[in-house]
Amino acid sequence: MSTARPLNDDEVFNEMKKMVAFIKQEALEKAREIKVK
């Protein structure tokens, strides 16, 4: 976060969506690796 000012609700929501999407992606990759073994 480069901005010092507080985020508004939309920005917070977008950041959370990005984080959730990233975490889901990571989980899918891990699951795929485990299945391959």
UniProtKB/TrEMBL annotation:
Top-level taxonomic group: Eukaryota
Annotated protein name in UniProt: Uncharacterized protein
